[in-house]
Amino acid sequence: MEAGVATRAEAPRAGLRLPGVGAGLGRGAVVLYLSLIVLLPLAALTSQAFEDGLSTFWQQVTSPQAVRSLELTFVCSLIVVAINAVFGTIIAWVLVRDDFRGKSAVNAVIDLPFALPTIVASLTLLTLYGNDSPVGIHLAFTRAAVVVALLFVTLPFVVRAVQPLLIEMDREMEEAAASLGAGGLTVFRRIVFPNLLPGIAAGVALAFARALGEFGSVLLFAGGLPQTLVASVFIRQQIESGNETGAAAVSVVLLAASLVMLAAISLIQRWSTRHAH
Amino acid sequence: MRTERRWGLRALGLGYLLALLLAPVAMIFYKTFEHGLAPPLEAITSPDGLHALKLTLLMVAISVPLNTVFGVGCALLLVRHRARGSALIDAVINLPFAISPVVIGLSLYLLYGTHGWFGPTLAEAGIKVLFSVPGMVLASIFVSLPFVVRETVPVLQEIGTEQEQAASTLGANAWQTFWRVTLPAIRWGVAYGVVLTTARVLGEFGAVTIVSGSISGQTQTLPLFVEKQFQNFNAPGAYGASVVLALLALTTLLAMNVLKRKEDA
C-alpha cells in the first residue's frame, strides 16, 4: 500500500507518537478545538450573566420564579437519584446474580434511555401516563411527571456503575458470613452494600448531574407550567421572552452545579480506586 | 439466597423496567399504528418531515467524523503523551456530559448572536451561524464531544505500547504504526464511541432548539419536528417521527451490544 516507503530505521520509542504531527502540535490542535467548541461559548455565557454587574446577576438568580425553578429542579433531582439508587442496585443485582430467560435482552434494554432521543422519551411517557392514559394513571403536567421523566433518563447510570462491581465481588465473603449465621439482610448491609457503595455513589453523581440539566424529556410530559417549571425550561422561556441576562444567570448556576458534580465524580473515582487496592 | 426473596427482587426490578421503559415505548408504537400505516407515513414523508430527516442525517454526517478524529487524536495525546495540562484537558472533555443542553444552546446563542463576541464580525462577512446549519452543527459537536475520547482512552491504556514499540523498532513510521497496529487494536472501542456519538447527535434536542429557532422546512431536525407537530396537535406527525427516531435508537442499542461483545472478545 505505502509503495516505496523508505524503511528508515528509527530509534525505538516509548509508545506511539501522534502520526505526522508532533505531540506539541497535537496538543495545540486539541486545545484549539476544545476552546472553540466548549470554552469560548461558556465564557460568552458567563460574561453575559455578569454583564450588568454582580447585583443584577444576583437579582436575576433570586427572582421568585428563578428560585422556584431552581428549587424544583434540585428537589426533584434528589428524589430521582434516591429512587434510582435503590432500583438501580436491585436491577444490577438481578442482572448479575439472578438467572432467567431473556436476561441478556433485559440487560440490553437498560441502555435504551441513553439511545432514545429525550423528546421521544417525553412523548412516550405522555402516551402512557398522560391525560388519556390507557392504564388510568394521570401524571401529565404535574410534579410527578417531572420525577418520572427524570427517572426515565437517569435509569442506566446506577445500574451500569454497580454491575461491574457486583460481577467482580468475591462471593466467599458472603458465604462465610452466611455460614457464620448472618441473615440475608445482615450480609447485604455489612458486606454487599459497602462493596457496592463506590459504584452507587458514582452512578448517583452522574445521574444527579444529568437530572439537573434535563430538558427534552420533561418538556412535553411535564410542560412549562409554574408548578412544573424546571430550570432548563425556565431558561428557554427567558430566552424566548428576551431576558438573555436572566437566562444566562440561571444557566451559570446550573453550570456551577455541573462543575461541582464533575469534581465530585472525579473524587469518587479516586476514592474507589484507593478502596479497591 | 432464599427463593422467595430472589423472586421478589426479580419482580421488583423487572416491574420497574416494565413500567418506566418498556410499556411507554411499546405504547408509542401502538399509538402510531393505531389507525394503520398511512397517517404516520404521510406525516414523515411530507416535505417538512423529509427535510427534517435529511437535516438530522446532515448533522450526523458532519459532527460524527469531526468528533471521531478529534476523539482518537485526543485519546492518544492523553494516554501516550501525558504532560502538564492533560488533567485539565481531561476535565474539559467531560463538561458536555454534565452541562444542560439548554445551557449549551444558550452559550452558542450568546457567542454568535447579534450582540455576541463573534456575531457582528461574522454577520459582516455574510456568515450566518444562528438559526442556520453552522450553529446547529456546533451544538451537535458540543453535546457529543466526549464519547469517542471516553471509549478510546481505556482501550488504549489496556493494549499497552509493546506492539507499537515493536513496529517502530522494525522501521514503521508513526503513520504506519498508527494505521497498522494501534487502530486495529482499538477499533471496537472507537466504533462503540462512534455509535454513542451518532445516537446523541440524532436525538439532540435542547441545544439545537435554542440555536436553530426550529423553523419548519429550514432549521428543523427530526426531534424538533416531533415537538412542532405535537404543538400543532398533529399527533400522527409527532408519533410517526418519534417511531423513526425510536427505531434508530433500537438500532443503536443493537450495535452497542454487538460492539461490546467484540470489545470483550
What does this entry look like structurally?
The complex is a heterodimer of chains A (277) and B (265). By secondary structure, chain A is mostly helical. Chain A has helices at residues 23-49, 53-61, 64-97, 103-109, 112-115, 118-129, 143-168, 171-179, 184-213, 216-222, 231-240, 244-276. With 265 residues, chain B is an all-alpha fold. Chain B has a domain at 59-215: MetI-like fold (Orthogonal Bundle). Chain B has helices spanning 3-33, 38-44, 47-80, 86-98, 101-112, 119-124, 133-144, 146-159, 162-169, 174-203, 206-212, 222-231, 235-264. In chain B, helix 3 packs across helix 7 (133-144), helix 7 (133-144) packs antiparallel against helix 11 and helix 12 (222-231) runs antiparallel to helix 13 (235-264). The model of chain B has no long low-confidence stretch (mean pLDDT 90). Classes of the chains: A mainly alpha (277), B mainly alpha (265). Chains A and B meet through helix 1, helix 3, helix 4, helix 5 and helix 6 of A and helix 1, helix 3, helix 4, helix 5 and helix 7 of B.
CATH topology of the domain at 59-215 in chain B, which one? MetI-like fold
Task: Please identify which CATH superfamily of chain A we are dealing with.
Answer: MetI-like
CATH-level-2 architecture of chain A: Orthogonal Bundle
| Oligomeric state | heterodimer
- Tell me the number of helical segments of chain A per DSSP (H or I, 4 or more residues long): 12
CATH superfamily membership of the domain at 59-215 in chain B, which one? MetI-like
Number of strands of chain A: 0
Shape of chain A: globular
Radius of gyration of chain B: 22 Å
Helix content of chain A: over 70%
Reported by name, the CATH topology of chain A is MetI-like fold
The CATH class of chain A is identified as: Mainly Alpha
Sequence stretches where pLDDT stays below 50 over 5 or more residues of chain B: none
